[in-house]
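worker-3 :: picked DNA repair protein MutK
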Amino acid sequence: MAVGLAALLDDIAAIAKTAAASLDDIAGAASKASTKAIGVVVDDTAVTPQYVQGLNPARELPVIGRIAKGSLINKLLIIVAVLAINYWAAWLLTPLLMLGGTYLCFEGAEKVIEWLLGQRAHKETPAVDQDAQTSATASATHTTAAEDQLAKGAIRTDFILSAEIMVIALNEIKDQSFGLLVAAMIATALLITALVYGSVAVLVKMDDFGIRMMHGASKQTDFKYRFGFGLVQAMPKVMACISVVGTLAMMWVGGHLVVQGFADLGFSPILDFIHYLAHSPAAVPGIGGFLSWLTDTIGSMICGFIWGSLFAIPVLAAHRRQH
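worker-3 :: tokens ->
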């Protein structure tokens, strides 16, 4: 009996070790997949708070929760599609990545060009959702129907960003076994959705928290008041900083996807040149690795801006003619 129990415990321990190793593999693959999609993640975090501007503060978190739920459903549906593509038409992944990279480059370059021209960005949120946002912010009192329209518009836009995220993620771990691939993609979807919409919820409520601290202070010289006032004053700057970082990250990630895509299709001079430049500072003691990464990143970012400008300039010119 004791021998049988010992054998059973050994089996359980072996199963537990195998499960732990599998979880480590899944976590590692999900982390690798998520890191590469950071450009889209930052942009998503910067854009999403705009959807709840003008809402009753009590309705902000419920609406963000609805958008987050819709985003997760988007990602799960996309996972099925991209896994099917990876299994039956893997050759499509490179064109899809280049298409998504081109979209990122276009978005980033458009924002930079508008800034350089001193224009106020006319497309903080995609045009497809302007009607939803307008109807949802037209009055101080928002109906359930207006919130539904706003949430649906945000979820439609999220579908594009989620598609880019999941295709980029898949490309990073596509050589894994099917079971690990599925688990890692689902983990990536959960992780990124929680990261984006958790951050959005904090950002959206931070100024409300600051206002409550100001109201709770007995006088304006109190630390609570000064801290709350500081939060309220800082949030527009924080959002502007996130927007800038998101724009740079879009051109970096998008540029890398396009350059790598061309190399995969047989045209590698641009990628080879970036690698040559990045290799040069690698020998610098202590910071060589960072300088190499920074050079590669800046090279991809510049390529992303140039590539995106090829599409953004005609679009901006057409928009100017219309106005």
